[in-house]
Input
Amino acid sequence: MSPIDFSKSKILIVDDSPANIDILLELLRDFDVRAVLDGQDALNAVSEELPDLILLDITMPGIDGFEVCRRLKADKKSKDVPVIFLSASTDDESIVRGFELGGIDYITKPYLSKEIVVRVRTQLKLKSALETAYHLSNRDALTNVSNRTRFYNYAPKLLQQAKERKIALYLAVIDIDALKQINSQHGHVVGDRVIQSCANSIKRMLKNVNLVTRSGSNEFLVIFSGSNHNAIVEQLERLRTYFERSQIVPGSDIHFSVTIALSPLQETDKQIDTLIARAHDKIKISEVKENIVLG
Output
């Protein structure tokens, strides 16, 4: 993991005491710090721009720190932002409540300068490590699109939302043709370029896409929702044609093609695998792969 540039780490300080804020601004001068004086301004600030870390005073007029934290953790957008509580209270009840509400640390006043900086740095490092681990566990290493883990965490939710809201949902299977032969004839380095080229073009050329996933060595799954069937087919046809005309290696005559099948969500479908199976069936029943979009 590359070193963290702390100067770009956004920290929000929430404290009703200007004197305390001045102390923290000085201690954290090497970070990108913003300060507000009350709970409502804190909630407004977070809604405008998510910080990387929040230093949150507990005792404030109006909305106190505990309530601010509760609201932040109840909001999908801000629930993962780490919160360090600041308080003059050292009683066990306050400390336990802070952790129960989702705080990740608890610093008591008066502040020890080295302690503040070390704890802030530690939590920022931990946040970065967790984000890196999540990314690695949910992304295909070669193409940086979603992997099967993220697909099966996210796609069923898209299907359920489409059924509840009664909106259209489509799943496209995009197969790279003859990838084994490309690897055999030109080597796996070229084969990897084919896969990367396919992923990059899918992300660049297809619009109104909810999810792009590499589900196998030569297969991508793409989910569209709320889109027009004909518009999706036109996009996929342009993508297919683009691949046939593109050079994998500039100056070479190496090309590749894809076969695409499109599967719409039907009223009786309960699982995303049903759409995948239907698309695979459309590909299999084609006697000769003509690399066309199967509607």
User: Anything to note?
Assistant: The chain has a mean pLDDT of 89. The chain has ten helices and ten strands.
